[in-house]
UniProtKB/TrEMBL annotation:
Cross-referenced Gene3D superfamilies: 3.40.50.2300
Protein name: Response regulatory domain-containing protein
Family annotation (SUPFAM superfamilies): CheY-like
InterPro entries (UniProt xref): CheY-like_superfamily
Domain of life: Bacteria
Length: 107
């Protein structure tokens, strides 16, 4: 069986549980979770993650570190990153893309 590996990064454990519940019907998903940037980086380095769902407010610099790490890691080049936020998309673009050339898709 082929799994889709999803990493959920959120400092609020109840938010992680809500996202896990929404994904729980799909048996082909393996969920990893982290409540800190440090833990999430360890997971990304050790596992082939397909999708990251990240709380933008966890740490502005932390999200940039994750994106930069993914770009340097050839195993994980094609990860989809979804940023969970209440900020306006223009604010996120201004923060992330001044220092990073990745393009963001909005869903």
């Amino acid at each position: 069986m082929v799994y889709v590996n999803i990493l959920i990064i959120n400092k609020d454990k109840s938010n992680i549980q809500k996202i896990k519940f929404l994904l729980s019907n799909n048996k082909n998903i393996k969920i990893f979770q982290a409540q800190s940037i440090k833990d999430s980086l360890l997971i990304v380095i050790k596992n082939s993650i397909d999708i990251i769902i990240c709380d933008f407010q966890i740490s502005y610099l932390g999200n940039l570190e994750i994106i930069k790490l993914l770009e340097k890691n050839s195993i994980n080049k094609n990860i989809s990153i979804f940023i969970d936020t209440v900020l306006e998309i223009t604010e996120i673009n201004n923060k992330i893309f001044k220092t990073n050339k990745r393009k963001m898709k909005c869903y």
